[in-house]
Amino acid sequence: MRLLLVEDDAPLGSGLKQSFQHEGYAVDWVESGKHAVLAFTDCDLVVLDLGLPDMDGLQVLKEIRRKDANKPVLILTARDGIENKVSGLDLGADDYLAKPFEMEELLARVRVLGRRLNSMSSNTIEIAGVELDLHDHKVTVESKVISLSRREYMIAKALMENAGRILSKSQLETKLYEWGEEVSSNTIEVHIHNIRKKLPDGFINTVRGVGYIVRPS
Predict the structure, then answer these.
(1) Is the torsion defined by CA of 22, 65, 157, 191 positive or negative?
(2) 82-90 and 57-67 are packed helices; what angle lies between their axes, rounded to 10 degrees?
(3) Which of 3, 13, 108, 126 is 20 to 30 A from 135 via CA?
């Protein structure tokens, strides 16, 4: 899953980005409302600070909701008054977390929104003997844990979350890589090749000229 982090506090933003990346998310970080309004269409979920230097975060939320009624938005802010929480939720925020906060709680809330985004009600996805644990970031095949790199895990997760749908190479690249990262032309193919060696035969199917698909069991 790709996150847009909107946070103007540089040390906090850097720390949050690293923590999200450690959990397997691709993260794009912007420090202004203007950039957030331009960038949110590329992400799956927005973590939005309200105290931005160029425009109020609630106005950013209004702009997001004007263009996309369903994009999950989690407000993260030092404004902990009840009136600010009510305003944010009334404007369409999906969740609200006041600073200071525990990183584990933030990660848990992001996982909840991610499950809601994918219409899932548990922390696991199981298809044809392959089980993916969204909380512990591990994959098991017939109850045996297999070793996947971070990006291999993210590809497996994207394909399993979208079981029955073809994901193109560019769609997978979007979920794996952040702005400015150089991506070799055959990077996705190499990752898919390595994943296939660890998963059951035929689990990931290639649709020639289109992309890749995991078919639901």
Answers:
(1) negative
(2) 20
(3) 13
User: Cα separations (Å) of 135 from 107, 110, 194?
Assistant: 10, 11, 23
**Are the CB atoms for 97 and 76 separated by under 8 Å?**
yes
Tokens 């959990």 locate to 23
pTM over 0.85: no
The conformation of residue 42, written as its DSSP 8-state character, comes to G
Query: Which of 58, 120, 119 lies closest to 92 in space, CA to CA?
Result: 58
Rounded Cα distance, 22 and 119, in Å: 24
Structural element, H or E, at residue 104:
helix 103-117
Q: Which residues, listed in sequence order, are joined to residue 8 by a DSSP beta bridge?
A: none
Q: For each of the domains in the chain, give its residue range(s) and CATH number, in order of start.
A: 2-117 (3.40.50.2300), 124-214 (1.10.10.10)
Instruction: Write out pLDDT tens, residues 85-98.
Output: 777 788 888 898 88
